[in-house]
């Protein structure tokens, strides 16, 4: 990453982290607020707030009382709320290499602390320094939040089905993951006074980048290094999740191998290691990592066409491109 872009991106990250630390001021009762402090402190890529801040800077957002900051904070708190509840629904033991909230505390705590994070995300959005822009931002936030919940339900439904199509899966990840990336960019731009056409192009850029991001995440879940990702390698296979990798493999395997794959995904053995090993072997047999990588790259190419159409500051457009490139080269 060029020094100039790195320096500017680090500046935005410092601004965000400084404000994140103090964005939720209440501390009592500790059983409610401590889990929120915990999930916000253990990190993550902080992609969504960075996108919101970058989008705002593209349209002249200043360093003093920046309009993009309330959006960035609201998006990050909302995103972590979804993670708390997703981890409960998935019974995930780890998040970012640390125990999940429901493992460290309990399920009831994770649900209630997550509920409060949702409320706080809306409260943070109302701190926008230009109140006349708030109605449009609130409308966008509601649209995005609704999409995320719809995507999560599709994800749950797909675990009970063996006939999920590629189109259905892409719709699910668009709602569950991509719309929030797009929404962060759209809201950051609108907060800084961008017109609707530019905001729409940025939303499309984020949505397509989000699809590419999720496909890359699916690859890392199955073929990544758990020590690098902070997650249990093969967790999607263990949980019988019908990811793009599974659907594409079933579509291309010979009948006997297809039946074997479906059988593996119909139960959960006590020792999952043989299942993970055989399923990944079947996926490699159909060259699934290469096929998924190609689709990821196609989405990103389409995304950059939308970014090129945006009329914002070219320096900050380039910063945004650098961040997207980094996301799709990551190994964690």
From TrEMBL:
Q: Enumerate the PROSITE patterns for this protein.
A: POLYPRENYL_SYNTHASE_1 (PS00723)
Taxonomic source organism: Neolewinella litorea
Instruction: Give the family, as the similarity comment puts it.
Output: Belongs to the FPP/GGPP synthase family.
Query: Which residues are listed as membrane-spanning?
Result: none
Q: Which UniProt keywords apply?
A: Magnesium, Metal-binding, Transferase
The name under which this protein is listed is Polyprenyl synthetase family protein
- Needed co-factor(s): Mg(2+)
GO biological process terms, alphabetically, are: isoprenoid biosynthetic process
Annotated SUPFAM superfamilies = Terpenoid synthases
Question: A GO molecular function for this record?
Answer: metal ion binding
């Amino acid at each position: 990453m060029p020094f100039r872009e790195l320096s500017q991106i680090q500046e935005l990250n410092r601004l965000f982290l400084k404000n994140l630390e103090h964005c939720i001021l209440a501390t009592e009762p500790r059983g409610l607020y401590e889990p929120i402090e915990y999930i916000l402190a253990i990190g993550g890529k902080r992609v969504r707030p960075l996108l919101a801040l970058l989008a705002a800077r593209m349209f002249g957002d200043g360093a003093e009382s920046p309009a993009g900051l309330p959006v960035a904070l609201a998006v990050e708190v909302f995103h972590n709320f979804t993670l708390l509840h997703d981890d409960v629904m998935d019974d995930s033991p780890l998040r970012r290499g640390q125990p999940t909230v429901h493992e460290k505390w309990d399920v009831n705590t994770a649900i209630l602390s997550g509920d409060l994070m949702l409320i706080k995300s809306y409260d943070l959005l109302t701190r926008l320094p230009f109140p006349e822009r708030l109605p449009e931002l609130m409308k966008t936030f509601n649209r995005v939040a609704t999409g995320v919940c719809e995507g999560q339900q599709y994800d749950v439904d797909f675990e009970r089905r063996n006939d999920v199509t590629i189109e259905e899966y892409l719709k699910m990840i668009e709602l569950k993951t991509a719309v929030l990336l797009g929404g962060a960019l759209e809201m950051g731009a609108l907060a800084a006074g961008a017109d609707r056409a530019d905001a729409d192009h940025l939303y499309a850029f984020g949505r397509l980048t989000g699809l590419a991001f999720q496909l890359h995440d699916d690859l890392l879940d199955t073929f990544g290094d758990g020590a690098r990702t902070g997650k249990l390698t093969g967790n999607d296979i263990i949980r019988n999740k019908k990811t793009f990798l599974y659907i594409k493999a079933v579509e291309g395997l010979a009948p006997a191998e297809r039946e074997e794959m479906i059988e593996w995904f119909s139960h959960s053995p006590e020792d999952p290691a043989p299942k993970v090993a055989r399923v990944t072997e079947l996926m490699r047999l159909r060259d699934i990592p290469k096929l998924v990588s190609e689709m990821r790259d196609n989405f990103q190419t389409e995304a950059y066409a939308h970014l090129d159409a945006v009329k914002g500051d070219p320096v900050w457009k380039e910063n945004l491109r650098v961040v997207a490139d980094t996301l799709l080269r990551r190994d964690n």
